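Researcher: Re-running this chain for the archive, since the previous output was lost when a drive failed. Same request as before.
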Amino acid sequence: MLEDAGYSSGTALQALEDNNIEGYIPNFCQYKPSREGFTYNKENDCYTCSRGVHLPFKKLTTTSLGYQMKVYRSSARDCGPCPLRSVCIGKSDYKKIDDTIDKPLYDRMHARLQTHKARRMKKLRSSTVEPVLGTLVNYLNMRRVNTRGLRQANKCMLMAAVAYNLKKLMKWQTKKVQADVKALQIKAGKELLNFISMLISFIVHHTINLHPKN
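Model: Regenerated structure tokens:
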């Protein structure tokens, strides 16, 4: 299954794994596979900076978009005398790292997206699905459906799909006619060349017979 980042969520990724479905969904923009200068310790559930300072798990929070995040935070006592403070935390008293509670799911999806098959699937989607959506949204006025209820919205989608397919069919037929005409031209050209060749041979043959060599 191949979807865009709009379908990226812990619930969706968990459903894929529960149903043994191999999915390819780009992770949502807030996901980070790694933190520069920090390593994650799975056993102790904490981050450790390059100087050995630990950022243990502190609490759970919920973002404005509804994502649950795990907060890891260092101690102000550890970060105060740090020589890297200006580039690491700036004017803050401590370092804070937020991770989604579904990070293991996103990590596994991130690893899958680095494979050759994932790149091939993405290329396939870019050449088949995305052009259709782009045409419907930008040229067939489907950026918004101004109807009430699913039945009416479904009618709009069906009419837009019919218009899209008719346009595609007309374009295909035009190309087919052009190809047929070109094929006929090539065939006619070959037949003309054969005729001219036969005519020349006929003329040469009769010329030799009319004027035999002594």
